[in-house]
Amino acid sequence: MNTLFTPLKLGTLNVPNRIFMAPLTRCRAGDAHIPNDLMAEYYAQRASAGLIIAEATMATEGNSAFWKEPGIYSSEQIAGWKQVTDAVHATGGRIFLQIWHGGRACHPLLNRGAQPVAPSPIAITNDEVRTPEGTKPYVIPRELRDDELSGLVSGFKKAAENAKVAGFDGIEIHGANGYLLDEFLRDGSNKRTGPYGGSFENRARLTLEVLEAVSAVWGSDRVGLRISPLNSYNSMIDSDPVGLFTWLATRLNDYHIAYLHVMRGDFFQQQNGDVMTPIRQHYKGVLIGNMGYTGEEAGKDIAAGKIDAVAFGVSFLANPDLPARIKASTPLNQPSPATFYTWDAEGYTDYPALTTS
């Protein structure tokens, strides 16, 4: 367990412990997607994390997949996020911003009628999306042309520039959970031919182009990447997830990024297997594990060299002082799923800290 409380170096950033806060979409940014006082309070409450990875944030306008999630493309959003980063830093914390494009998980009712885009015209079928008109089926996306992809890369680069102005300590690229970059990576959603489809190298091309673009802004040692090799969320699947993601892990060694953040399992438990071991064998940098870890397991796996840190999701959502609770072996607050995607303080900033529970 003590290994969780040893310092770690992420590129040029030193963090005091290995209990990270995973990115958690909470939908508190309102219809204009602008971070606010409530969000600043929420993140500041959790500043004892070794690193906070802030929630999925729209790199470009018109790509909403959660209705009231934040963006980082307008001056108002930059100012809102600056309020958040100032609050976290005032409490001694460190915070990266996860930048994101929803891809085929976007919906016309959330984006002024615009059809979502994807590598191939294949819709999500295993879930529905929340909209102002209630839950709706996902729609068939429009297949992106090769000549459109440089514009997407530029959008991520601009988002990285805006995140720097907003005072973040770095950025995480969202390459997981069936959103745009993950859709290009996995062959269940990418049926393209040409330079962005087919081989591992071609399917990873867009992700690596984004990585290079944002690294030009921040330096690669302040950039992380999140992947979800097995997760079937948003109708995702791949014919060879271990082969694909060990190839990618090996390729990432050339970039010297701050960390690789790996979701080890599947929300729906449809795809099973061990991806952490082969990725650890092939990736030489800082490896963050995520999904279903207890404090005890996390400490043991770090001590054994299987991972370097763990990003806790739902447990951090419900326990603003999670590191203190793990250290004291104190029972955790239980989360309230009914408030995960609501719009006020209930189930957001009102979970009790250890000193008041």
In short:
The protein is of the alpha/beta class and 357 residues long. Helix content is 30%, strand content 16%.
Strand content: 15-25%
- Tell me the CATH superfamily: Aldolase class I
Count of discrete domains: 1
Largest sheet: 8 strands, parallel
Would you kindly provide a written description of the structure presented here, covering whatever features stand out?
This protein is an alpha/beta fold and 357 residues long. It has one domain: TIM Barrel (Alpha-Beta Barrel). It has eleven helices and 14 strands. Strands 3-14-13-12-11-10-5-4 form an eight-stranded parallel beta sheet. It has a two-stranded antiparallel sheet with strand order 1-2. Strands 6-9 form a two-stranded parallel sheet. The longest helix is centred in the middle third of the chain and has 17 residues, at 149-165. It is globular. The two termini are 23 Å apart. The relative contact order is 0.15. The mean pLDDT is 96.
List the helices and strands and how they pair.
Layout: E1 8-10, E2 13-15, E3 19-21, H1 37-45, E4 52-58, H2 75-90, E5 95-100, E6 117-118, E7 128-131, E8 134-137, E9 142-143, H3 149-165, E10 170-175, H4 180-185, H5 200-203, H6 205-218, E11 223-227, H7 241-252, E12 259-263, H8 276-282, E13 287-290, H9 295-303, E14 309-312, H10 314-318, H11 322-328
Parallel strand pairs: 3-14, 4-5, 5-10, 6-9, 10-11, 11-12, 12-13, 13-14
Antiparallel strand pairs: 1-2, 7-8
